[in-house]
Amino acid sequence: MQTLQFTAESSSDGMIERDFTLGDVPGVLWSPASGAGRAPLVLMGHGGGTHKKHPAMAGRAQRLVTGCGFHVAVIDAPGHGDRPRTAYDEQEIAELRRAQAAGEPERQIVVRYNARLAELAVPEWQATLDALQELPEIGADGPVGYVGIGLGTAIGVPLVAIEARITAAVFVCTWPDVLLEKAQRITVPIEFDLQWDDERISREAGLALFDAFASKEKTMHANAGRHMELPRFEADSATRFFARHLGRTTVTSPA
Amino acid sequence: MQTLQFTAESSSDGMIERDFTLGDVPGVLWSPASGAGRAPLVLMGHGGGTHKKHPAMAGRAQRLVTGCGFHVAVIDAPGHGDRPRTAYDEQEIAELRRAQAAGEPERQIVVRYNARLAELAVPEWQATLDALQELPEIGADGPVGYVGIGLGTAIGVPLVAIEARITAAVFVCTWPDVLLEKAQRITVPIEFDLQWDDERISREAGLALFDAFASKEKTMHANAGRHMELPRFEADSATRFFARHLGRTTVTSPA
C-alpha cells in the first residue's frame, strides 16, 4: 500500500491544512486545529476545470471542519490542479472549448471526458482512502462521506457505487448518461442538488439522475437559478446532512 | 375591525399557548415564554381533516417559538377543529370517504372542496392578521411568514398571492389544479416540500406546482417516501428558512 506524504502544513481560522501526495496524486487534508481525537472523514470531488483548493472546496471544508469537527480531503482529478495534462486531456479540452465557442452541444464531450477521468480517479480515491485511514486521527472504522460537484459527481457516483466505506453522499447535479446504472446500485443516504433553471443540464436529465438512486433516504434540493447559481445555503445544508449521518448530533448553522 | 378575544392561556417548554377567537373563528397563538419584545409572526395552515393544534402544527410551532423567538398562529379551517360542519361539509366529506373506500380517484373531490374552503378561509386569515398585528408584541410592521400543509397549502397559495404582508412561505405539496394561476402571482421566497413517491399526488403534479411560483428564490425539497412520510428534518429546514427570511440571523438546529 502507498503511504501518504505530507508536503506542507499551515493553519488558519481553526483549520489545519496539510498538502499531501500519494504517488503522483496531489491532495489536501483539512482538519480541526483543536481536536486530537478521531473524527469522521468527508472526501470531496471538485468540479471540472477547477482544483482541490478551489473556493467551493475550501468553503465547504471550513464548514465541515470547524462546524462539525470533521476531516476533509480533496485530491486533484487527473489533468486538473497540480497534475499534468496528457495529450488526451488537451484534445478533449480543446474540443470542448471549440464546441462552447461555436454554441454547439457540449453534453457528449463532457460526458465522454468525465467518464474517462472517473475510470482513472476511482482507484485513486480508493488508494487515498486506504492511506487516510492509516492516520490515527481518522482510523479504519470511522464514518466516511463524499461530496461531488460536476466532475466530482461524475467520479463520485461510480466511486460510492462500489466503495462500501462511504456511507452518505452529497451530489451536485451533472449529466446522468453513463451514471444512471451506477446510481441504481447506490443505497446510502443521498442529498442531491439540482438547479431548476440550469441552462446546461436539462431539468429532465437532472430529475432522472435523482430518480435513479436506490437509496431509501434521498433528498433533492432544487433551487431556482442557473447552472452556476447554487445558493450558498446548500453548503450549510450539506454540512447538516453529514452531521446527521456521520455521527455528530449538533451543529450550529450560520442561517 | 374585529378584535381578538383570548379565551385560555397555558405555558410549557418555553412556549406560551393562548387560545383565541376572532368572531366565530377559533385560533391559537404560540409565543416565547421569555421574550417581551416584538418578534416576527408565522401563520400556519393545517392539513385537511386535522385542526389548529394537531402535532404537525404544535411541533413546528415549538421549533419556531423556542428556536427563533417567533410568534406562531393557527386558525381552524372552516368545518375543521372546533368549528361546526355545514351540510355542504358533510356532503363533501361523505363523498370523499366513499371514493376512498371504493378505491376511486379522490383528486377532483379534494380539489373542489379545498377550493371552496380557501374562498372562505382567505378573508378569515386576513382579518386574523389584522387583529394579530394590533397586539404590541407583534405590531403592524413586523415580518410575516406562512406555512401550509395540504389544505393549508390550498388556502395559503391564494392567500400569499394577494397578501403583501406575507414575505416568505413554506408549502407542503398539494394538487396544483386551481392553484397554478395563483402561484404564478407569488414572488416571495418559497420553500416547497414534495414527496418523491407520493401515492396520492403525482410527481408531475407536484413539480408543476413548484414550477409555477414566480419567486426568484424558491427551493424544492423532494424526499424519497410516500404522502405521509415527510421527514421531520424538513420542519427544521423550514425553521431555518424563516430564520433567514424573517430577520433572525442564528438558529441552533437539532440536527
Note down, in words, how this protein is organized.
Two copies of one chain form a homodimer. Chain A has seven helices and ten strands. The first copy, chain A, has 255 residues and is an alpha/beta fold. Chain A has one domain: Alpha/Beta hydrolase fold, catalytic domain (Rossmann fold, 3-Layer(aba) Sandwich), CATH 3.40.50.1820. In chain A, strands 1-2-3-5-4-6-7-8-9 form a nine-stranded mixed beta sheet, sandwiched between helices. Strand 10 (251-253) of chain A pairs antiparallel with strand 10 (251-253) of chain B.
Helix and strand topology:
The structure is a homodimer of 255-residue chains.
Chain A: E1 5-12, E2 15-22, E3 25-32, E4 41-45, H1 55-68, E5 71-75, H2 87-101, H3 107-132, E6 144-149, H4 151-162, E7 166-172, H5 180-183, E8 190-195, H6 203-212, E9 218-223, H7 233-245, E10 251-253
Helix pairs in contact in A: 1-7, 3-4
